[in-house]
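We were asked to recover a plausible sequence for a given structure. The inputs and outputs are reproduced exactly as logged, with field labels preserved.

PROBLEM: sequence recovery
POSITIONS: 354
GIVEN STRUCTURE:
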């Protein structure tokens, strides 16, 4: 199992349950994708709200970056202050993106190893059957799909698989419109090419629509935009090099995301929430600037004065330091000198003699 494909352990059995109800690998993949997208809708709506919230902070972030462009330490300090004082969190919208990526890698793992994850046949039995048929076991990417195709073509296996396991593979329906969803399209001209092409087209449309409706496109920095494009193009590449089942999932997922983007925009318009967060931010700023009356000690006298929240925090900090200094006044705060250490040792000896 690949390091990114650990979710296959969860996704595989879920698809296995669906396949038992819908005994067609391609249709199972489509239904599974729709279910995953429905389950992720609350996260998509939350991301929509976070994107609107982050758009309010963007002018403040830009101001900090320009003001301290030659002082990275100060820039980081001001960004941390922005996060603490106003609740700015640059990672708030990363969870849906990360989860979507992990699911994609999990699906790749499942479509490479459908015999193991969907049919539930142990890996050792699969390897033994492949060795008996002369199928290369060092290529784990195509080993299981080659085993499916060999058995579908009428090859019998006498080693590794039980009769029930052999029949499960023989009856494993991987066909859609007469095309095998376990085949790898590659970059050669064939009917199978239509699936990765549709996946690529729907990716461009879905990505563009999502950015436009969520307002994320305008906020993305150049490096972030480049990273998003690289990730999407990487998955398009997988559509050509992985079994067609992955292209089917990716294209269906992109189409679902289009509807998801429109629905999220209808329910939570970024413009509406941007105005709401702008009002909340303005209220927080006003509260910080608001003056309050306090009585403090200055030069031995009590003085009543008007201070802001920032000034009040400074007064509290100075007061806390003063109280600590008074509380620990008798405790040593520096190392002993050689003379002081010798004096203490001499006093201790004199005390013992008494």
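RECOVERED SEQUENCE:
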């Amino acid at each position: 199992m690949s390091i990114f494909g650990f979710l296959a352990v969860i996704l595989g059995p879920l698809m296995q349950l669906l396949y038992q109800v819908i005994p067609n690998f391609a249709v199972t993949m489509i239904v599974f994708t729709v279910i995953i997208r429905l389950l992720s809708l609350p996260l998509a709506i939350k991301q929509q709200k976070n994107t609107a919230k982050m758009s309010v902070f963007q002018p403040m972030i830009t101001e900090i970056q320009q003001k301290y462009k030659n002082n990275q330490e100060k820039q980081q300090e001001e960004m941390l202050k922005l996060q603490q004082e106003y609740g700015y969190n640059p990672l708030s919208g990363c969870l849906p993106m990360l989860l979507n990526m992990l699911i994609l890698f999990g699906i790749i793992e499942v479509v490479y190893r459908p015999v193991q994850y969907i049919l539930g046949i142990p890996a050792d039995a699969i390897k033994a059957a492949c060795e008996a048929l002369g199928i290369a076991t060092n290529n784990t990417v195509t080993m299981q799909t080659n085993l499916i195709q060999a058995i579908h073509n009428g090859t019998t296996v006498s080693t590794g698989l039980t009769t029930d396991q052999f029949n499960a593979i023989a009856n494993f329906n991987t066909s859609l419109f007469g095309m095998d969803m376990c085949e790898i399209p590659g970059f050669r001209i064939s009917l199978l090419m239509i699936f990765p092409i549709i996946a690529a087209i729907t990716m461009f449309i879905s990505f563009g629509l999502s950015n436009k409706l969520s307002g994320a496109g305008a906020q993305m920095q150049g490096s972030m935009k480049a990273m998003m494009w690289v990730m999407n193009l990487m998955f398009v590449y997988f559509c050509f090099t992985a079994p067609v089942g992955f292209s089917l999932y990716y294209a269906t997922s992109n189409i679902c995301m289009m509807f998801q983007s429109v629905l999220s925009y209808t329910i939570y318009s970024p413009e509406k929430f941007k105005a709401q967060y702008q009002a909340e931010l303005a209220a927080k700023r006003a509260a910080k600037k608001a003056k309050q009356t306090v009585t403090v000690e200055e030069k031995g006298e009590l003085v009543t004065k008007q201070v802001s929240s920032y000034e009040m925090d400074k007064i509290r900090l100075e007061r806390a330091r003063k109280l600590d200094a008074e509380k620990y006044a008798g405790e040593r705060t520096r190392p002993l000198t050689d003379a002081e250490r010798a004096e203490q040792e001499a006093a201790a000896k004199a005390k013992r003699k008494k």
